[in-house]
Amino acid sequence: MLSFNENGIYCAQADVYIDPWKRVDNALITHAHADHARWGMKHYVAHKDSVPVMKLRLGGNIKIRGVAYGEVFSVNGVNISFHPAGHIIGSAQIRLEYKGEVWVVSGDYKIEDDGLTEVFEPVKCHAFITESTFGLPIYQWRPQAEIFADINAWWRENADNGRASLISAYSLGKAQRILYGLDQSIGTVFTHAAVENTNAVLRKQGIALPPTQSAESIGGGRKTEISRSLVLAPPSAISSAWASRFEPFATAVASGWMNLRGGRMRRPADKGFVLSDHADWAGLNLAIKETGAERIFVTHGYSELFARYLREQGYDARPVETQFIGEESDLQASPDVK
Ligand SMILES: [Zn+2]
Ligand SMILES: [Zn+2]
Fold first, then answer.
1. CA 222 to ligand 2 centroid distance, Å
2. Separation of 135 CA from ligand 2 center, angstroms?
3. Is the dihedral of CA 102, 64, 200, 229 positive or negative?
4. Which of 45, 93, 158, 236 is most buried, by CB atoms within 10 Å?
5. What separation in Å is there between the alpha carbon of 108 and the centre of ligand 2?
6. What is the DSSP string of 41-63?
7. What is 2-139+278-333's CATH number, 1.10.40.30, 3.60.15.10, 3.30.830.10, 3.30.43.10?
8. Which numbered ligand comes closest to the C-alpha of 131?
9. Any idea which ligand is nearest the CA of 324?
């Protein structure tokens, strides 16, 4: 029912693309990260919680329709619905059903409940198109409570030593996830404008985020507060003159790539925390098993290796070329990161 062409993942029967990377008429969007939600489509359909952020990023005049999880709509006989992917707020797996055959496109997904994002829902299907950002057995996440305990301990230690704590975080997803796990009794949480603009849009749609203060408003006379603060900012800001207002400070990166000792790090940081919005090895395998699918298509990440492993487990699995990027996508292509 779905095929892969130069524009993206295509359903010919409904004439729709899922997360297309070239300009097409009809796009179904799994989530608002820059490598999945691109500019230039005539019509977009996304989960309703993705709509305000997509307008922020792609422009207020895009033609977009928001749908709820589980709401079914029909296009030329194809029944289409969106289901929670647990990756970021509004993220969805997209289910397409035609004449009894069911395909599901996962987009990016995470199994662990982060308390902020609608929890991942396994969807039964015949064919499953899965991501594989962390599709190697070395990727195993510790429970997030332990990671947040580490982050808060690092913050507290910095605060007690008179230096601010700067964490690199994508403006959509990781920033809110970290914010949600912080112990606000330690100090003030400041945000870069890219993060604060996204927070503002999410708060406006009723999502209860813990309090933050825009770092752009920092004036003189707040030395002690700044030295005890935690700052959420895109990596490009942390490595630029923008960060000098917080000196002295320590820096950290929170990413699944921290699982490899500095292996995929873009810039050196004082500290690395292994925290990802993608499924780890066990999560990917569990998700695939729960779909009951026999045919598996593996996209961005370790697609060749992971597809081969799945074939050894008896699946009809193959890798697929896409232009999805993985955990770093938001760092590279987002227009709001300056
Ligand atoms: Zn994503
Ligand atoms: Zn992705």
1. 39
2. 13
3. positive
4. 93
5. 5
6. -SEEEEEGGGHHHHHHHH-TT--
7. 3.60.15.10
8. 2
9. 2
Q: What is the CATH code of the structural domain delimited by 144-273?
A: 3.40.50.10890
Contact 2, 14 (CB under 8 A): no
Which of 7, 289, 236 shows the shortest CA–CA distance to 17?
A: 7
For the CA of 276, the nearest ligand: 1
Range in 123-127, 258-262, 328-332 with the lowest mean pLDDT: 328-332
In this structure, which amino acid lies at residue 91?
A: S
The tokens of 271 are what? 């500290």
pLDDT in tens, 25-74: 999 999 999 999 999 999 999 999 999 999 999 999 999 999 999 999 99
pLDDT at 253 over 50: yes
What mean pLDDT, rounded, does the chain reach?
93
Tokens in use for 75? 């296009």
Residue 61 burial class via C-beta count within 10 angstroms: exposed 0-12, middle 13-18, buried 19 and up = exposed
In the Cβ-directed half-sphere of 105, how many Cα atoms lie within 13 Å? 31
Distance in Å, CA 87 to ligand 1 centroid: 7
Kind of pairing between the strands at 64-67 and 43-47: parallel
Q: How far is the CA of 324 from the centre of ligand 2 (A)?
A: 5
- CA–centroid distance, 110 to ligand 2, in Å, is 11
Q: How far, in Å, from the CA of 294 to the mean position of ligand 1?
A: 25
Ligand at minimal distance from the CA of 325 is 2
DSSP 275: -
| Residue 219 CB neighbours (<10 A) | 6
pTM of model > 0.90: yes
- Domain range list for the chain: 2-139+278-333, 144-273
